[in-house]
């Protein structure tokens, strides 16, 4: 009886873990995730999130499933000297673990755009 119970639990866990989904999108400031989808994770792979920064300013994030050709490899503060960009990649292996944050509030977008316009005017002056 114990063997049958253990076999049933193992089969159930295998079925549950075999259907892990990750979020897949490019997340940009003000707009949030563009073309939000989900992808089915291949066995042995992980969901990944790569955040890209210019200095300390966040530019965008790339959320996707790792694949055998492009597996998730965690990396922090990788820099591209030519462009001055910094990349941070994190990996996870639970269902929807690379969940994108909610879209920013419209009021926050207005403040950001107003600030950006002010900087643009100052640079033109």
Overview of the structural elements:
This protein is an alpha+beta fold and 125 residues long. It has a domain of 87 residues. Strands 2-1-4-3-6-5 form a 6-stranded antiparallel sheet, with no helix packed on it. The chain has 2 helices and 6 strands. A hairpin with a 3-residue loop joins strand 1 and strand 2. The protein is elongated.
Whole-number mean pLDDT: 81
Biggest sheet character: 6 strands, antiparallel
Query: Uncertain segments of ≥5 residues (pLDDT<50)?
Result: 12-17
Distance between the termini: 82 Å
Short summary of the structure?
By secondary structure, this protein is α+β, with helices and mostly antiparallel strands.
Features:
125 residues
What are the SSEs and their pairings?
Layout: H1 2-17, E1 21-28, E2 32-40, E3 47-54, E4 57-65, E5 75-80, E6 85-92, H2 106-124
């Amino acid at each position: 009886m114990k063997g049958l119970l253990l076999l049933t639990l193992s089969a159930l866990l295998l079925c549950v873990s075999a259907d892990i989904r990750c979020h897949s999108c490019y997340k940009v400031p003000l707009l949030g995730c563009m073309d939000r989808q989900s992808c089915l994770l291949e066995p042995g792979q992980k969901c990944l999130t790569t955040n890209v920064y210019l200095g300390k300013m966040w530019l965008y994030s790339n959320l996707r499933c790792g694949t055998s050709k492009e597996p998730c490899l965690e990396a922090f503060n990788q820099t591209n000297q030519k462009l001055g960009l910094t990349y941070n990649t994190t990996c996870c292996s639970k269902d929807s673990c690379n969940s994108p944050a909610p879209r920013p509030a419209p009021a926050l977008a207005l403040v950001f755009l107003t600030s950006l316009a002010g900087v643009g005017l100052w640079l033109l002056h």
